[in-house]
Amino acid sequence: MTATEYTNKLQEVVKNLQEALTKAETNQEITELKTAYLGKKGHFKALSQQIKDIPRTEKKEIGAVLNDTKTQLESLIESALATQTTTTQSWVDLTAPGVKPKLGHMHPVSQAMEEITHIFEQIGFTRVRYPEVDWDWYVFEALNMPKSHPARDEWETFFVDAPTDEKMGKMVLTTHTSNGQVREMERLNSKPPIRMINIARCYRRQQDATHTQMFHQFEGLVVDKGITIQHLKGTLDYFAEQFYGPGTKSRIRPFHFQFTEPSFEVDFSCHICHGTGYLDTKEEQKCRFCKSGWHEVGGAGMVHPNVLKAGGIDPDEYTGFAFGWGVERTYTLKEGLNLDDIRLLYSGDLRFLTQF
Ligand code: FA5
Questions:
Q1: Which residue's C-alpha comes closest to atom 31 of ligand 1?
Q2: Residue 52, CA atoms < 13 Å, CB-side half-sphere
Q3: CA–CA separation, 114 vs 245, rounded Å?
Q4: Half-sphere exposure of 162 (CA within 13 A, CB side)
Q5: pLDDT tens, 118-129?
Q6: What is the pLDDT of residue 132?
Q7: CA distance linking residue 247 with residue 43, whole number of Å
Q8: In Å, what is the CA distance from 282 to each residue of 247, 273, 295?
Q9: Residue 213: predicted pLDDT
Q10: C-alpha closest to that of 343 among 204, 214, 205
Q11: Could you tell which of 176, 306, 319 is best to mutate to test the pocket of ligand 1, judged by most ligand atoms within 8 Å of the CB?
Q12: Ligand 1: distance of its center to the CA of 316 in Å?
């Protein structure tokens, strides 16, 4: 038998099955056809045994055609069975358990923002929202950061291609939530007491495992008569215990921000080694999560007198404290998360997101 004759025979088997399937009306009939064509004694088996009659030089090529024929026969049977099941089922089992639709949930960052808001509302803070595209004035200038000041380079700002205002300057994507400070003073007609928590998106030209171009910060601002660093420290300790669990401590280290004086960096004690930096009492095994016993979350300080003045508040009468931390950073330090790449939060990967 020549290779062409053999190929014709294979094609004929496929055609015959196609025709037979158009007449099959039940699952039983289709299953019988499956046995007749693909079973041990079926048409395909018989044909595959005839391959020995093909000249050796053509066998290799024919082998591929033979495999292809088998796949075609199998898929004809499979799709006939599938169609049969969907078209012939005319009854519904009302006692069968329902198929639960998959429920979505809040994004982990939104969950964190809700929790943060709740914690601060408990001690009299009010959550506010301010523009995320704002004037240079609120983002920098009113915060004691004059145009030429080198500190402004640190924020790696996105400028908006919009007309410049004589007083307000350029429009920028907010680099931090501190733009809310003077806005809040204005909202309250420069009349303390102020207890604000401002949570918003921020934007910077940064991208690595601990930085994203869009992220969130939460900014606390308290202004009243007689506010001191003790009030700031008490608030930090309160938040640490509420957000990370009992026993978590806060620590402030001297730092520099133009809009606070004195300024600090804020750390929270590591929940794995409880602030010791070691996993054992003999201090032989270093904590891999924090390395030092503490995690830095952001900045804080006593509101600079020039910022109070920009908001129309007399710095001789009132003092205040402010802090600003990354929501993502603060959240990923939570016990059990230990996320070492915050970009995962914005990956849109459901395998990751559905874990929260
Ligand atoms: C500030 O933004 C100050 N406005 C904070 C402040 C407010 C100080 C009030 C004093 C008084 P800093 O640039 O360090 O400071 O940012 C604060 C925190 O925001 C960082 O510690 C980090 O947690 C988070 N953060 C900053 N840039 C990014 C980024 N690109 N991606 C994710 N988180 C970021």
A1: 211
A2: 3
A3: 17
A4: 15
A5: 999 999 999 999
A6: 96
A7: 76
A8: 21, 13, 22
A9: 95
A10: 214
A11: 176
A12: 28
Is the pTM higher than 0.85? The answer reads no
Tokens for 163?
């007309």
Distance from C-alpha of 88 to C-alpha of 185, rounded to nearest angstrom: 71
Whole-number Å distance between alpha carbons of 233 and 324: 14
User: H or E element: which one contains 44?
Assistant: helix 43-49
Question: Domains of the chain by range and CATH?
Answer: 3-86 (no CATH), 108-132+177-353 (3.30.930.10)
180 lines ligand 1 (CB under 6 A): no
Give residue 30's identity as a one-letter amino acid code.
I
Note the pLDDT of residue 89. Answer: 63
| pLDDT the model gives residue 221 | 98
Phi, psi of 194 (to 5 degrees): -120, 130
Rounded to the nearest angstrom, the distance between the alpha carbon of 191 and the centre of ligand 1 is: 27
What is the number of other CB atoms lying within 10 angstroms of the CB of residue 283? 10
List pLDDT tens digits, range 330-349: 998 887 777 878 999 998 88
pLDDT for residue 158: 92
* 78 secondary structure, DSSP code: H
**pLDDT for 336:** 78
Report percent pLDDT > 70 for the chain. 98
Question: d(Cα 238, Cα 248) in Å, to the nearest integer?
Answer: 9
Tell me, what's the pLDDT at 345? 92
Kindly compute the dihedral angle of the four CA atoms of residues 270, 271, 273, 277, in this order, to the nearest 10 degrees: 0
Q: Which atom of ligand 1 sits closest to the CA of residue 178?
A: 4
What atom in ligand 1 is closest to the CA of residue 325? 18
Residue 255 pLDDT: 97
How far is residue 309 CA from its own chain's centroid? 39
Contact 157, 175 (CB under 8 A): yes
**What is the DSSP annotation of 202-236?**
EE-S--BTTB-SEEEEEEEEEEETT--HHHHHHHH
Residue 206 in contact with ligand 1 by CB distance below 6 A: yes
In the chain, which stretches have pLDDT less than 70? 85-89
Of the candidates 271, 267, 217, 265, which has an alpha carbon nearest to the alpha carbon of residue 244?
271
